[in-house]
Model the fold of this input.
Amino acid sequence: MPVMEPDLDATLLRDWACAVDEGPFSSLAWGERIAFTNPDSLTLLGALAAWTDRVRLVTTVIVPQLHDPVMLAKALATADLLSGGRLTVGIGVGGRHEDYRAAGADPATQTMRQMAERVAIMKRVWAGEKTTESVLPVGPAPTQLGGPPLVVGTIGPKTLRSAAGWAEGLAGITMDLDVAKQNELFDVARQAWREAGKAQPYLATSFWFALGEHDAARNQVREHLLRYMNWIPAEYVEAMAPTTGWAGNEDELLAVLRSFEAVGADEIHLIPTSSDPDQLRRAAEVVTEFTR
Done:
């Protein structure tokens, strides 16, 4: 979903969601920020559950430390109910202290240990346990037994290993589309899950994309990064923009998708750098060919 783009409205968001649901895509993903112009992730999740019927809904990612864990568990269980069990919850510690401060959260809690503590509370809620003295436990019960699957959003091996005890996989991101580097992180996950005695992890990566004539598409990515990475000095974003994300034509995108598939990616999330529906239409054509 193009949630980090400016000038969004309900019609545009609904049209994107319906087009993804009707298209060749396997999931619909979006991220969370607080001190930004994007829609609230949990409110949008309810709308997406109502607007779609088929695709999985994947949060990439929600930061538990920005929410009360019991209320977050309740909201996610509600979304799992509304979507008929189509929810996957990507969570991470986030990368911006300003979001913590805006939400009234302590930036000192931006740790994997603090996130794991909140995950444990959420799983207790989803299991129907009482988290305090009450007549009934916090509901509703999620449609998926034990709650929606949790995947960790990270690019770091240490963080990934620490999540093996509670996560079902990885919701990664590649800044420079280095397939070998991404596969190294996949291998870390495979080993960590094996050592934890768990089944093979779900492995996903993502990247910013723009389809079009190369210079115009690359500039589209650049403009998006300047808006989105507004906590980083603009000169640094300008320096990284030429090699961050992906820009090119349909054949080139198809080749990129196949390269990540070859190293075992279960899903590849395409992050829009424009809310133009034509970008989604063109991406759908590529994915149709990719999934044949």
Summary: Residues 61 and 100 are 14 Å apart (CA to CA).
